[in-house]
């Protein structure tokens, strides 16, 4: 080995409990992880969503029962929060998916700066639309 080559970098294993909490994730990595997580959540809850849909359209009586579940006290609030979480998961997954497709099609979107900008845009748009739909869900307008 020659002196011109210099010392090679030394790599070490990381301690997940000590190093990962202090690591600052870029916005693009956070949105990418949330995209995966929201997809898994929607996939796992799909049978429940289909069952709720089936119960709501089976008959007028089942629709009335379904509607009263949303209106009744604490259980209605819990159900609305559950639906709001699903709305947010869907919106985040949708806009993050559009972001991924756009970055695949447009090679100009693959820079660090553009990735951070589109990731922040994805988070803001999904949160704003979730707040608007949540306000409608809770009867604020």
In short:
The protein is 72% helix and 0% strand. With 141 residues, it is an all-alpha fold. The chain has a single domain, classed as Fumarate reductase/succinate dehydrogenase, transmembrane subunit (3 helical TM bundles of succinate and fumarate reductases, Up-down Bundle), CATH 1.20.1300.10.
Primary descriptors:
141 residues; mainly alpha; 3 helical TM bundles of succinate and fumarate reductases; 4 helices; 72% helix
Description:
This protein has about 140 residues and is an all-alpha fold. The chain has a single domain (about 25-135), classed as Up-down Bundle (3 helical TM bundles of succinate and fumarate reductases), CATH 1.20.1300. About 70% of the residues lie in helices and about 0% in strands. The chain has helices at about 25-55, 60-70, 75-105, 110-135. α3 (about 75-105) runs antiparallel to α4. The relative contact order is 0.12.
